[in-house]
Amino acid sequence: MTEYLLLTLAAFAAGALNAVAGGGSFLTLPALIYCGVPPVMANATGTVALLPGYAASTWGFRQALRELKGLSLPRVLMLSVLGGSLGAGLLLVTDNRTFNQLMPWLLLAATALFALAPRLLASRQGRSASPTVALAALTVVAIYGGYFNGGLGILLLAALSLLGHSNLNAMNGVKNLLSTVLTAIAVVIYALGDLVLWPQALLMMLAATAGGYWGARVAQRLPAGTLRLGIIAVGLAMSLIFFLRL
Fold first, then answer.
1. Calpha distance 28→150 (Å, rounded)
2. Taking the chain, what is the end-to-end CA distance rounded to the nearest angstrom?
3. How much is the pTM?
4. CA gap 147, 12 in Å, rounded
5. What angle do CA 80, 149, 104 make, to 5 degrees?
């Protein structure tokens, strides 16, 4: 019961964080591993838990969805499906020992991207890359999302900025849609590969959905800078803990 309570609280907090800023996987993944779930299975189960939040965010931004400059939305969705499938397939063939060694670096990279995202996006505003570069960037991000998912939204925003996209609402709408699509296809592959602990996943899905609703209604009252610093601190602390476990 103590473990289920911990997972419920972690998922609730993760849903709230994802609703207002991101970084929810910094809580769900360590909580599952602390409860004795093997790293690869913990990554897959935590991703399943956060899927409803992505879908709800997409619905919330449905009016803001726009065609991307230089690329059609259907083509970008196809890239998400392809990349998410490749990333999830890669996770299926990754053993727990290898993933355990990669995890601190992945968490640290996601935290660094979260910390640097405002500066990176500001530096790209109004500047576009070639369609080939943008396609390649989106594909790589989709593969990453299917494999690990941590910091996915930040990477998608950075990739979209390569297209010269500067309307933040439109970018968030497309980001949420792509996150939902590639995560959904990854979850199907995780399930087929028997990587999901469904009792924990379903409990965390409910908690994360409730947390997302609460976050959207309440947590936005917190100062954005304070919230951001708190998430960065959590990411750094979790990275350090997993480095010490190596």
1. 10
2. 28
3. 0.83
4. 23
5. 145
